[in-house]
Amino acid sequence: MTTPATSAKGLEGVVAASTRLSDVRGDIGQLIYCGYDINKLAGKVTFEEIIHLLHHDHLPDRKELDELKSLLAAKRELPKGVVEIIKKFPKDTPPMHAIRTAVSALGCFDPEADNDSMDENRLKALRLIARIPIITAYFHRHRQGKILLPPEPSLGEAANFLYLIDGEKPSAEKINTLDMCYVLHADHGMNASTFSARVTIATLSDMYSAITSAIGTLKGPLHGGANEGVIKMLQEIGSLDRVDAYIAEALEQKKKIMGIGHRVYKTLDPRAPHLKRMAQILSAKIGEPKWIQMSDRIAEIMLKEKNLHANVDFYSATVYYSLGIPTDLFTPIFAIARAAGWTAHVLEQLSDNRLIRPQSQYAGPVGLKVKPIDQR
Ligand SMILES: CC(C)(COP(=O)(O)OP(=O)(O)OC[C@H]1O[C@@H](n2cnc3c(N)ncnc32)[C@H](O)[C@@H]1OP(=O)(O)O)[C@@H](O)C(=O)NCCC(=O)NCCS
């Protein structure tokens, strides 16, 4: 038996891949996309520019950006078969289940699903980025018994998604806010869902299978599902004066506070201040400052008591809530944005592939004798 070279519960500290896409510098609270600090990108470039950056390793010029936007807009329409599948989902299906299954179904309706040429894979990547928002919006409208609107090609990614869920053209403020959330969520090193996508594609499976794996992984409350947990917690607490007692009791019972803590960041998550700023502006506008006040108090207590900082999910929850987005679409929005990173990682893995196959440390007995069935 060979002994594994490294063993770490939860693969903590283990380097699983080399990437040019993003770097999470947990010790100094820095996030880099292809050489650019997230703080230099946030508020200055759009989600489509980030897609281009992650997929082509440079920020686009005007012509490249226009081309990418037209390509994405042209790829939004879902195969009829996938729309039919979405319409058959029970209306109370949690959206992440619906999205995972519909994304998997996209593979059944793409004759090129198993075509492994790099050019085809690039096209499939764009199709997925363009279609995950449509799947999300269509499932949301289906469960409300509303008609499914055709995508609007003149609108960018964030605007089109808001238009499809609300049925009306969104305000510039709403579009810019969601777009910046997309930018901040687009990629994040070897996070759990990206790792899933890379493990799946490393078997030379296919792009749809890899992204389906990633969505299933993102869904969990320790990963993308935390943003829903934040708003549920805020609603449960109800008011600022109840925060201290609620958190004290939760910590006493060793419960995890959603939106707090991070495997890699041991200081402030650099995405959090951008989201906090947006949350402050929006919650003041909708006349419900209590959400941000409660959030700030929770963050203050967690830092003091446990030396843990707020992460990306903590303030994004208040931002989405203030935009009027239903709570169970928070994690799907994370998926829409992270599809940019997942697909870029899949393409990167394919460009220099090696099967990802770690070992386990056997902790069971050896040498057991097999007794005949009537003697066990
Ligand atoms: C993100 C997360 C899974 C990282 O987990 P991890 O690296 O495995 O860290 P651990 O769970 O080992 O936590 C280390 C310590 O901090 C505590 N801790 C970590 N996150 C905590 C939280 N959100 N609330 C309360 N305590 C927390 C742990 O209980 C543990 O304490 P202990 O040493 O006294 O046992 C974890 O912080 C968490 O569950 N956060 C809430 C979910 C969330 O927001 N996820 C989104 C991440 S972007």
Give a written overview of the molecule:
With 376 residues, this protein is mainly alpha-helical. The protein has two domains: 30-171 and 185-220 and 327-351, Orthogonal Bundle (Citrate Synthase, domain 1), CATH 1.10.580; 226-322, Cytochrome P450-Terp, domain 2 (Cytochrome p450-Terp, domain 2), CATH 1.10.230. Helix content is 56%, strand content 3%. The chain has 16 helices and three strands. A three-stranded antiparallel sheet has the order 1-2-3. A hairpin with a 4-residue loop joins strand 1 and strand 2 (30-33). Helix 13 (272-285) packs parallel to helix 15. The mean pLDDT is 95. Coenzyme A is lined by residues 10, 222-223, 226, 256-263, 306, 308, 311-313.
User: How many angstroms does the end-to-end distance come to?
Assistant: 29 Å
**How does the overall form come out from the CA principal axes?**
globular
Total tally of structural domains: 2
Q: Would you state the CATH class of the largest domain?
A: Mainly Alpha
Task: Explain briefly what this protein structure is.
This protein has helices spanning 38-41, 47-56, 62-74, 80-88, 95-108, 118-143, 157-166, 172-185, 192-202, 207-218, 226-237, 243-252, 272-285, 290-306, 312-322, 330-351, and strands at residues 22-25, 30-33, 36-37.
Question: Any key phrases for this structure?
Answer:
376 residues; mainly alpha; Citrate Synthase, domain 1; Cytochrome p450-Terp, domain 2; 2 domains; 3-stranded antiparallel sheet; 3% strand; globular; binds coenzyme A
